[in-house]
Specification:
The complex is a heterodimer of chains A (457) and B (343). Chain A is an alpha/beta fold and 457 residues long. Helix content of chain A is 37%, strand content 18%. Chain A folds into 2 domains: 47-182 and 324-406, Rossmann fold (3-Layer(aba) Sandwich), CATH 3.40.50.2300; 185-318, Response regulator (Rossmann fold). Chain B has 343 residues and is mainly alpha-helical. In chain B, a hairpin with a 5-residue loop joins strand 1 (60-69) and strand 2 (75-81). The radius of gyration of chain B is 22 Å and the shape is globular. Classes of the chains: A alpha/beta (457), B mainly alpha (343).
């Protein structure tokens, strides 16, 4: 005797679903993704959940807090609250303040602690327990690379936060990962001509480099760019990431015949090494008949506050600056709109960490809307090769080959007499995107491949 | 030669901080027998005494300047320190400039108080517990203290500069017969070294030449006998805990112009200071000071480019290598006393 599993109700349900599927016209455009299911964490009901994975504890907690403020602002604007921020200046007009694809945006947060394992654990929790469809944030390249790999394995989109190492979109690039922030190569390419113009081409540089992935790629980028301008690299010394007092690394600089010190340091390392270098009178020295100079390839406004007056006159690069539109005009439209929204809500101007987070959230929402689907593979397709404007950096391209954004790079200098704690740097020049663009197979980005997008199911 | 002199100066300077922290650690261990993992946090709290004093002295009221605008285009709100109202701008600026040295006046009572509260309120309950329990509770306390500081002051370093008069560097080059500019050393680091020397000498003199110090030393050598003589040694040890906290705190206060303080700075020093104590010899005050300076100098030399060219990465492990060698050849450390931590 056999037992049938068919029931009258079951047959009717299946028939109704099949009928609805057959009745729906198939359109082979980006929007065709909308007809598909079968991807991880497809939004249920009338909400969609995004995962903001930022350092809420540890040494980058203040940067994480600023990033989180920006994400909260982005969610407000996507849901039609507040003044809309950059939605009004964004070149794409598909975002109308009704959430994403009509679903109200909600979010969960995770604490990366600026540790790769903790960041992966919090991202995993947001994906598995909270059903996050996209993960974004972070203030470290180590974390970005780790979380990007996790998102690739899991099958959700990763919109990187503040990550500057070449590897994020170089040897560790992934199909599901996208970086809006600039990288070490771009810093080198943007800085080198300005360094040559300001300090001359006959210079001897001494590098102190943080002993981890970001430090290596930044040193390599600055070295190759400055050497191409005629500079000589007299020495490169790796410093432990945990180092706090750099005096024993600064002292040998005094004994060398270097007339430039490049500090490939970030965060607390940068604050301490720069402070120590200034204490040792390096900025007052004359070597080889030239004024000794210090260069900090990657500026962080939040951390620069820790260095106080020591950053005065020091050249470096940034992804964005809140004064861009005021000082350089409409090309950088979106900047003022964002500063206005952020400043009104929080009482101070946003950092570049906040800016890149906000922009990434908007770009993701826009890509989903244009694709007509939350399917990660549809989002990848919508973002690859996407050209946009109005988000504060001028015309920008999300290059398909490596998922890296290409845009102008801001070269800044520590202000001699800052008027307040938010006015620490002045814009020296903006290096056009053409000068910082490189081939996808450039040696500094060699190895690794995007692979294929993973929808997670 | 200039490079060697510079690294000796660096080592002495770095060793000053190690020695001050290790001295306090050894004092607490020698008197109370407690392995205090919160001692780095006391160093950090001292630094934040300087930050707090600096902020107190700069407490301001806002005045709207209609002639200027802020980043949103609104009339600029300018902060005017109250101290200008009380003493005039010129005197106020001098006080603000000298905030770090002046904060010592606040740090001493505050740190003694923190030390006494810490000892009476928490640590005394762990005297008879195993060292593992003491380590756990003091390490936990250190984490709590640094999270409290992070909550109120944020995670980023806070610039706390030295007075303008000490911002430059001293040129030893000409004085020692070398080229000008060959050996320059920041004024404040020299002051830090001298300050550490004075504090260390003061602590030794206090223990050596006062009745209180004599009783404490007697208590360190034989607590039971001193107690049997009717002396309340616990009270004196509590005061010593307060003094050890103040020494760590003062080390932190004076360190703030060298590196901008952040909530994590205590942990950065803690492990190294324990190595210093172990190398110097558990319970030995001269050993702690000697090892502090010795390891500071060795660490400075290991960071030289010439050394790193031969032994890459040696700068990251040299202190621990020295500790291993010392413990293998002199298990009680350089000046360790017999019977300490050997039960």
């Amino acid at each position: 005797m056999t037992k049938s599993n068919f029931t009258r109700r079951g047959v009717m349900k299946t028939g109704a679903i099949a009928g609805a599927g057959l009745a729906t016209p198939i359109i082979f455009t980006g929007a065709s993704w909308a007809q598909e299911s079968g991807y991880l964490n497809a939004p249920q009901g009338d909400t969609v959940t995004l995962g903001f994975n930022v350092p809420q504890s540890g040494p980058y907690a203040d940067e994480g807090a600023d990033q989180l403020r920006a994400y909260e602002l982005a969610v407000e604007h996507l849901n039609g609250e507040g003044d809309g921020g950059m939605l009004s200046t964004f070149s794409s007009k598909v975002l109308d303040g009704t959430g994403i694809l009509g679903k109200k945006v909600q979010y969960v947060t995770g604490d990366t602690q600026t540790k790769s394992d903790a960041a992966r654990a919090s991202a995993r929790s947001m994906i598995e327990k909270d059903g996050a469809i996209m993960i974004t944030g972070g203030s470290s390249s180590g974390v970005a690379v780790a979380v990007q790999a996790l998102c690739q394995e899991a099958g959700v989109i990763f919109m990187a936060g503040l990550t500057h190492a070449n590897d994020t979109t170089g040897k560790d690039k992934k199909a599901n990962g996208f970086r809006h922030f600039f990288n070490s190569y771009m810093s080198g390419a943007a800085l080198a001509p300005i360094l040559a113009a300001q300090y001359g081409t006959d210079r001897k540089a001494y590098h102190l480099t943080a002993d981890y992935n970001w430090g290596y790629t930044t040193e390599e980028a600055i070295r190759s760019s400055t050497e191409a301008q005629g500079w000589e690299t007299v020495n490169t010394v790796l410093t432990p990431l945990t180092q706090t007092d750099f005096s024993s690394y600064i002292a040998p600089v005094l004994q060398s015949d270097a007339d430039i010190l490049v500090l490939n340091h970030y965060g607390g390392n940068m604050v301490n090494s720069l402070t120590n270098a200034v204490q040792f009178g390096l900025r007052d020295r004359m070597v080889n008949g030239k004024q000794f100079e210090i260069v900090v390839p990657l500026y962080s406004e939040l951390m620069a506050r820790g260095a106080g007056q020591n950053i005065a006159g020091i050249l470096g690069s940034q992804n964005w600056d809140w004064k861009l539109e005021n000082q350089l005009g409409d090309k950088y439209i979106g900047t003022n709109a964002f500063v206005q929204s952020f400043g009104t809500k929080y009482g101070f101007p946003p950092s570049q960490a906040a800016h890149t987070g906000y922009v990434q959230a908007l770009l993701y929402a826009d890509a989903v809307t244009r694709a007509g689907s939350f399917n990660p593979c549809a989002v990848v397709e919508a973002l690859e090769g996407y050209e946009f404007d109005g988000l504060g950096n001028g015309p920008t391209l999300y290059r398909a080959e490596d998922h890296q954004c290409f845009k102008d790079v801001v070269v800044v200098r520590g202000k001699e007499n800052p008027e307040n704690e938010f006015d620490l740097v002045e814009i020296v020049e903006v290096t056009p995107v053409d000068q910082v663009t490189y081939a996808p197979d450039h040696p500094q980005f060699a190895g690794g491949s995007l692979g294929t997008c993973n929808p997670g199911a | 030669m200039e490079a060697i002199i510079l690294q000796i100066l660096n080592g002495l300077d770095k060793g000053s901080a190690y020695a001050l922290i290790a001295l306090g650690l050894t004092l607490i261990f020698g008197t109370l027998g407690v392995v205090n993992f919160a001692h780095g946090a006391l160093f950090m709290l001292g630094a934040f005494c300087a930050v707090t004093f600096s902020r107190l002295i700069q407490m301001s009221h806002t005045v709207v300047d209609e002639t200027r605008t802020d980043f949103l285009g609104n009339p600029l709100q300018v902060d005017v320190p109250y101290i200008y109202d009380f003493f005039g701008q010129a005197a106020g600026d001098v006080l603000i400039d000298w905030a770090v040295p002046l904060s010592i006046l606040m740090a001493i009572p505050v740190m003694i108080l923190i030390g006494v509260i810490m000892e009476r309120g928490l640590i005394r309950h762990f005297y008879k517990r195993p060292h593992a329990d003491q380590i756990l509770v003091t390490f936990g306390l250190a984490i709590v203290l640094q999270e409290v500081i992070k909550y109120f002051y944020g995670a980023n370093p806070i610039p706390t500069p030295a007075p303008d008069a000490f911002l430059g560097s001293f040129d030893f080059g000409l004085m020692l017969g070398f080229d000008a500019g060959g050996i320059v050393y920041p004024y404040w680091r020299l002051i830090y070294f001298l300050f550490a020397a004075v504090i260390i000498a003061g602590v030794f003199a206090f223990l050596q030449f006062t009745t209180f110090g004599m009783v404490v030393r007697a208590g360190m050598a034989d607590r039971e006998t001193v107690t049997l003589l009717g002396i309340d040694i616990d009270k004196r040890f509590t005061i010593m805990f307060g003094i050890a906290a103040a020494v760590a705190g003062l080390a932190g206060v004076m360190y703030t112009p060298i590196n901008s303080p952040n909530y994590h700075m205590g942990m950065d020093f803690l492990v190294l200071s324990f190595v210093v104590v172990v190398v110097g010899g558990m319970g030995s005050l001269p050993g702690a000071v000697l090892a502090g300076f010795l390891l500071g100098i060795i660490e400075a030399f290991a960071s030289m480019a010439e050394v790193l060219a031969i032994l890459p990465g040696i700068n990251q492990i040299i202190i621990y290598l020295v500790a291993i060698v010392v413990l293998l050849t002199r298990p009680r450390g350089l000046m360790g006393r017999k019977g300490v931590m050997e039960e």
